[in-house]
Amino acid sequence: MAALHITKDNFDSEVLHSDKPVLVDFWAAWCGPCQMLLPVIEELADEVTSAKICKINVDEQPELAAQFDVMTIPTLIVIKDGKIMSRSSGVIPKQEILDRLNV
């Protein structure tokens, strides 16, 4: 399954009120490091069933990027029960992402 695309319209229901941990990838199409991370995010979306894997395009959703003070991309945020559990910027290895999700 592909990563879920998040907008301000579905953010609350899909992320804040999720019954699973949620990995949110803040990205942009023009961002080289984001493109490097893209295959990893899609692999996680296919492999991980105990968490939601989501993407937010910062160009299309600037309000959400501002809400989370995203200044550099890619930024990965793990949210559980509506709270930020982990945050990182830049490309990180798949295993580190899995560790942050605790799966």
What would you note in describing this structure?
- The structure is a single chain.
- With 103 residues, the chain is α/β, with parallel strands linked by helices.
- 35% of the residues lie in helices and 26% in strands.
- The chain has a single domain (4-101), classed as Glutaredoxin, CATH 3.40.30.10.
- It has helices spanning 11-16, 32-47, 62-67, 94-101; strands spanning 4-5, 22-27, 52-57, 75-80, 83-89.
- Strand 4 (75-80) and strand 5 form a beta hairpin.
- The longest helix has 16 residues, at 32-47.
- The chain is globular.
Brief write-up:
It is built from 4 helices and 5 strands, in the order E-H-E-H-E-H-E-E-H. With 103 residues, it is of the alpha/beta class. The model has no long low-confidence stretch (mean pLDDT 95).
Features:
single chain, 103 residues, alpha/beta, Glutaredoxin, 4 helices, 35% helix, 26% strand
